[in-house]
Amino acid sequence: MAQETINLTLEPRTVLGKAVKHIRKEGRVPAVIHDHGQASIIVQGDSLTLLRVFQQAGKHHPITISTNGKTYTAMIKSVEFEPRKHELTHVVFNSVAADQVVEAEIPIEAKYDEGDEATPAEKAGLIVLNNLETIDVEALPKDLPDVLYYDANKLVNIGDHITVADLLVPATVTVKTDLSQSVATVYEPSALAAANDAAGGTEEATEAIETEESAETTDSEVKAEA
User: Fold this and answer.
1) 46-57 burial by CB neighbour count: b if 16+ within 10 A, else e?
2) E-only strand ranges, the chain
3) Beta bridge partners of 129
């Protein structure tokens, strides 16, 4: 499926350093476009527009930027937010060429049967923990997917898991993340609760279970080799 075109118009910016705080008070956000080793293009844009573009494009979707009579194809490299109000304060774009392979972070989502919103495991009262939200890939800008899916129907029983290798990845995309890394795993609720009580928190509980499973796997491999 062809990518949706995202257009953005930015204004040239002459204000630098601490003086940019006045730009932000006016509802503008300072930004910069890095252009293949050339001098960076210093720009600014409407804060709500830039926030909307970031929410739409993330760090994986090319953006067509118009500024000062020129047009650039670029991707968002990084963003900064004001922590208390969670307001966008700065954006860095990287200009990309159509024939240049680029790296990007692609979100991961479960793919359900039509009408479903849960895995077979969850329907049976089990818990599915997501271990990974994005993966790193390489592709031409036009080939970068907006999201990568995994088959949620494969998560049925306790211990069932999805790895990066199980993701549905187009042939035009190269995965850089370790293929063995876990994406989602099925757990029995009481096991999570017990681990949570022992570790004192949900995050620690998950780590405890994953560490135990990893140790069991390693031990099995050693026995098999022996």
Assistant:
1) bbeebbebbeeb
2) 7-9, 11-12, 28-35, 38-46, 63-67, 70-82, 87-95, 102-111, 127-130, 134-139, 148-151, 161-163, 174-175, 182-187
3) 185
| Mean pLDDT, rounded, of the chain | 85
CATH hierarchy code of domain 102-225: 2.170.120.20
What does the pLDDT look like over 89-107, one tens digit per residue?
999 999 999 888 999 999 9
pLDDT at 215 over 80: no
The three-class DSSP label of residue 178 is coil
Q: Please name the CATH architecture into which domain 7-95 falls.
A: Beta Barrel (2.40)
4-8, 62-66, 188-192: segment of lowest average pLDDT: 188-192
Domain spans of the chain, in order of start: 7-95, 102-225
DSSP character for 99?
T
Side chain identity at residue 147, one-letter code: V
Please tell me the least confidently modeled range out of 55-69, 131-145, 184-198.
184-198
Chain centroid to CA 10: how far? 25
User: Where is 193: in which H helix or E strand?
Assistant: helix 189-199
Distance from C-alpha of 200 to C-alpha of 208, rounded to nearest angstrom = 11
The sheet with strand 161-163 has its strands ordered as: 127-130, 182-187, 161-163
